[in-house]
Amino acid sequence: MTPTGMRLDALNPARLSELDADGVHAGGDPPTKEAALHLAMYASRPKAQAIIHLHGSQSVALSLLPDLNPDDVLPAYTAYFVMRVGRLRMLPYFAPGDLSLAKAEEAPGRGYHWGMATPHANLPRGTRIKVGVSGTLRQILFGPAEVDDGSQNLVGAITTCMGNVGAANLRQFQETEIIIAPSIKSEGKLFQMVQNVGMAR
């Protein structure tokens, strides 16, 4: 795996990071802070021999286009694309250290979250807290939801919110004006509280 802080034009095979299946550093330079991402990919695709992930300016620009269908981002111009890729989805953005993804069964923390961990051993790290496991990564992103606390089917929640405000695409959704009401935490929860159900439990 590519070491942390290493430029691609300065890669040296002798300094590549070696990790075992559990993510334990076994040799070479310290690994990239995105090692967990690569390990999750290998776990979900056991036949994969190599993984390359990029931060391409083209893909970022594509994600900002208006009228983009997040369930089918790229049109299939060739039969080869249909055979090899099929339908290409765009996942919602999650900030580094997001607690929602830390609760996935595939998360390397196994139910724990370590704040905004830095890639350097000499720098301070966040406090390690237990966040639990709420489902698989697919269930957290796409459902089906088995709980009513908003921790599952996040893409479905975004789609529902878009419908509530009349947004036909993500660009319109981003331009929606938001008004925060003082009673927003209790609004619509009266019957839940009386019956001790839902999020009022």
Report on this model:
The chain has 201 residues and is mostly helical. The chain has 8 helices and 4 strands. The strands form 2 sheets. The protein has a two-stranded antiparallel ribbon with strand order 1-2. It has a two-stranded antiparallel sheet with strand order 3-4. A hairpin with a 5-residue loop joins strand 1 and strand 2. The protein starts with 17 loop residues before the first strand and ends in a 6-residue tail after the last helix.
Poorly predicted runs: none
Count of individual helical segments: 8
**Percent of sequence in beta strands:** under 5%
Note the main sheet: 2 strands, antiparallel
Helical content stands at 25-40%
Q: Can you write the helix and strand succession as a string? A: EEHHHHEEHHHH
Overall number of strands: 4
Q: Kindly report the spatial arrangement of strands forming the biggest sheet.
A: 1-2
* Coarse shape: globular
Rg, please? 21 Å
User: What number is the mean pLDDT?
Assistant: 79
